[in-house]
Structure formats: structure tokens, C-alpha cells
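TA notes, week 10

Several of you asked for a full example with nothing omitted. So below is the full record: C-alpha cells for the whole chain, then the designed sequence directly under it. When grading your own attempts, check the secondary structure regions first.
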């Protein structure tokens, strides 16, 4: 499993996160697996404890190996178990020493006792959380969002500082889940890079392992070239196709395909999204329209009238 963790603070950030998690439910792009939130068809209006300017939300994306035989029920159980373990470990007073010791000795994190594990599971009822599965990429993954503050203890924020401790704790918990649920071990690129002492170019992310880092760099260059040499979407798609990249417009999104690998624009960067490219094409269309309007009207040829 690969896990990416991040934190969001404040009402506006939390609402954006919720909108992203449930976006696409009506068209089948995502599905809610579990949660105790109150939401509507649009972005959620209410957390169990309410949304405040000081509210911290944790968001974790869990990706699974293609060889794992899992369904939505297994994904839900694993995601709920992750929340329970993360909250239980993060609240331990000596968790920093435990993480440092596990990383230094390359050993697993000491397991929770049965009582600690069960108590953390029971606390899910007192903590706002949401688990969704997205179908917008070819690999199986779930998004987990949970409130860093329990409604029973509003002052306790389950978040470690500095931020790298949260990433390390996430990786250690994922190793436990892989062993307990018999999932294929799969580590993120930054962990592999750190363990191998690799220098120079970074490792390609898991979603572009077939392309490699050099392939992604070339792909970005070709797309930027196509943007600079195109006036509209049709020219852009044709230019990319000639260079071996297929660009498909699915509703309000773009999907890039190169050498059998599908990539979303945000995996390449903000300049490659439909919104940013559309702004460039709209600006060029306006300039072209102004140029046409500013051209003087051609005077009719007098020889034509004489005929």
C-alpha cells in the first residue's frame, strides 16, 4: 500500500476537501464506502462537531497494488482500521521516540494492545470521518478524511509536528495493515529513495512507473510545446497525437495517455489542467478577434463594378 497524508485547516479548506471527495458520485466517478457525516448532493454542509475556522482535518489517500484481491468491503475495513490505528498511535505520549526507534532499527512499530485498538474503533463514533473510493484512475485507491479533534475532547488535535513524523507514522501503520490483511508490500517513492540513498533525479511516482522520470519530463515538454503551437483544443490534441500522446476530454477533465499509461493533469502539474490550458486558448481567441475587428475594411475593386 502507498499512503499520502495531508492536513487542512479552516472552514474553506475543509469544504473544498469534502467537495473533492464526493465529487462525481452522481456520474459514478466516486462512491462513499463509509462515514458519519451529514452531507447533501453538493459539498457537505455539516460535520458532527460543526465546521470552524480552527478545525483540522486529516486527508489520507491509500493506493493498493494491482495484484491485491480486494473489493469495496475490504477497502472500507482497511480504511477504518487505518483511522483507528493512526489516532491511537498519535495520542501516545512517547510516539516520537517509537517512530525514531522503528526507523533507526528498521523494525516494525510495536502493535497496539487489544484494549487500545478496540477503544480507538469505538471512538470513530465520536469523530467525523468519510471514506470514499474514486474510479478516476486505473489503480484502486480510497480517500480517507477524518477530524483531528474528537467531539469528546475538543482540545486534543491528533497531528504530529514536524510533518515528516506524520508521513513516517503513516508508512509504519501501512506495513502493519499489509501484514494483517495479507496485502502486497508497496512503499512510496520517498521512502525507497531514503532507504537506498539514491541521489540525482527523483524516482517516478507509482502512477507513472512504466514511464519513468525521464518519460514524464519528456511528456511535460511535449504538452507545453503543443500548447505554444496551438490555437484551440483540436490543434492541441492533433499536435500531441503526432508526438505519441493521446489527450481525451472527459466532461470537464483531461486524461493524458502515453505508452499505455493514463495520467491525470494534476499528476503532471497545474499548467497541464483543462482550466489553465483553456485560459490560454480563450486569451488567444480574444486577441484574434480583436485583430480581425481592427483590420480596415477592404475597398471593392472598381474593375469588378465596371464589368
Amino acid at each position: 500500500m502507498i499512503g499520502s497524508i495531508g492536513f487542512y485547516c479552516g472552514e474553506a479548506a475543509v469544504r473544498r476537501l469534502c467537495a473533492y471527495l464526493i465529487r462525481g458520485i452522481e456520474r459514478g466517478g466516486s462512491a462513499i464506502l463509509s462515514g458519519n457525516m451529514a452531507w447533501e448532493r453538493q459539498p457537505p454542509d455539516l460535520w458532527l462537531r460543526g465546521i470552524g475556522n480552527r478545525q483540522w482535518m486529516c486527508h489520507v489517500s491509500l493506493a493498493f497494488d494491482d495484484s491485491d484481491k480486494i473489493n469495496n468491503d475490504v477497502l472500507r475495513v482497511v480504511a477504518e482500521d487505518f483511522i483507528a490505528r493512526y489516532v491511537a498511535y498519535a495520542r501516545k505520549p512517547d510516539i516520537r521516540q517509537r517512530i525514531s526507534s522503528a526507523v533507526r532499527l528498521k523494525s516494525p512499530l510495536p502493535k497496539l494492545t487489544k484494549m487500545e485498538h478496540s477503544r480507538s474503533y469505538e471512538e470513530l463514533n465520536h469523530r467525523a470521518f468519510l471514506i470514499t473510493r474514486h474510479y478516476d484512475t486505473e489503480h484502486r485507491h480510497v480517500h480517507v478524511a477524518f477530524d483531528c479533534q474528537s467531539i469528546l475532547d475538543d482540545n486534543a488535535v491528533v497531528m504530529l509536528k514536524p510533518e515528516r513524523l506524520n508521513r513516517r507514522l503513516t508508512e509504519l501503520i501501512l506495513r502493519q495493515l499489509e501484514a494483517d490483511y495479507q496485502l502486497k508490500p508497496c512503499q512510496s517513492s520517498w521512502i525507497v529513495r531514503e532507504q537506498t540513498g539514491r541521489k540525482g533525479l527523483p524516482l517516478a511516482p507509482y502512477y507513472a512507473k512504466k514511464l519513468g522520470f525521464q518519460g514524464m519530463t519528456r511528456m511535460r515538454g511535449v504538452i507545453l510545446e503543443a500548447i505554444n503551437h496551438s490555437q484551440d483544443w483540436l490543434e492541441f490534441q492533433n499536435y500531441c497525437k503526432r508526438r505519441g500522446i493521446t489527450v481525451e476530454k472527459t466532461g470537464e477533465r483531461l486524461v493524458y495517455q502515453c505508452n499505455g499509461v493514463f495520467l491525470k493533469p494534476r499528476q503532471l502539474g497545474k499548467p497541464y489542467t483543462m482550466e489553465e490550458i483553456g485560459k490560454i486558448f480563450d486569451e488567444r481567441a480574444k486577441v484574434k478577434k480583436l485583430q480581425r475587428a481592427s483590420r480596415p475594411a477592404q475597398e471593392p475593386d472598381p474593375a469588378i463594378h465596371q464589368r
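Strands lie at 2-9, 30-35, 56-63, 129-134, 141-147, 246-250, 253-258, 261-263. Use that as a sanity check on your answer.
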